[in-house]
Amino acid sequence: MRILKVSLTSVSLSSVITLIFSLFSYTPSAKRDPDTYYFSIGESFLYNLFTITPILVVLCLLCYFSYVLLGKLSRFSHFLKILLSILIVGTLTSITLFLASQSNKTNDIYLIPEGYEGDVFVFYNINGAQKVETEKGYEVHRINNKGYFATSTPDMDYGSVTDKYYYVDAKGNRTPISKKCVSLFGTGGYSTSEVEVVDLIYTGFRLTKDNCSGEFTNESFDMEDSKERMINEILNIYYGVEREDSI
């Protein structure tokens, strides 16, 4: 019965912590970067609640069992046990807030063929495509020479953009690309029921080599032609579908 109470208390604590974090991490519309997706307060709350709660429940149960063991040791005074409990709760709260802060970052790496310039896309939820690899907490997207990467990973990460961009030569050597050379498109999706149901999600950006600047980063571009061309190719390769409106 006590274990159930501890579990319910930890869920309540997680809700309070998540709500506070969601309120403080919310970015008003006036301060948002263009072509960047930001969580609403509700989205942030739900995402972090389902991410953090299981971890916090486990930690609280461990804390409870530790407290029970401490209670069996007579040399610990009532005051000391209360002090240790406060310390444990404070530690749990700090860990929870840290995990919540990490969960709202995109943390993607884009590896782009050396010399490539133009539109770059990543398409998610593609049947038969490779899974996204991870590297030191970042998801790695290996862009092909046609400007896209297709993966069976169901969806992308959302939140503050913390991505890294690299040119990669034939030997695998990486050269960092300045974020001033990247203009984000944002996110979108495409669905069709031809032959089999296709429900892909995409994100992308335009990459330049010579016009890197703050103006380029904030500029809006028409990427419809390149996006449609890449989707057509993906549908043909992975689903055997030839669209009538192919470019």
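Second entry:
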Amino acid sequence: MRTREVIRLVLVVIILIVAGCGNNAPSPSAGDDITSFAPPSSAGDLSAIACATEDPEGIGELTGVWLGSEGGYYYVRQVGDCIWWFGTDVRDIEPGLTDQSGFANVASGRVDGDRIDLEWADLPLGDTLGGGGLTLVYDAQNDTLTKIEQRGDWLPFGATTFTRIEPEASPQASPSAPPSP
């Protein structure tokens, strides 16, 4: 995949994450009526994004690439107590096509000690669509994340554990750096 296509994909993922941040409503269950959802605390609440804007080069302990037990790769960014990820097992991404073989998802949430609570949603890049809430626990000694809870009755989240395969990102990997040709 060319650098320009990767940059476009990353921008789309960031836009989707921004659109989903700040909603304090619980993950819906399959039987929930849409009218039972709690509205966001405010229409423009993007409090999770404030973490990135307060320290755009901040690199938290969980930043890096993680391998899920189902074979997916998760590109994680932590700034302060905020966390975002893009996860996929789509091997040969064809830009502009939907319903490609595999999954692609985004997630955002908060870190509290060794506990991570987040909301995730599949993207139409892959051939699955689901979403919900997850609670993970970070084991710093073994550098692993373990799913301890899943909220919502949507498609179950596939990975139960995540192992870091790439060390923390460096400030040189900043999105403000010009792309290489």
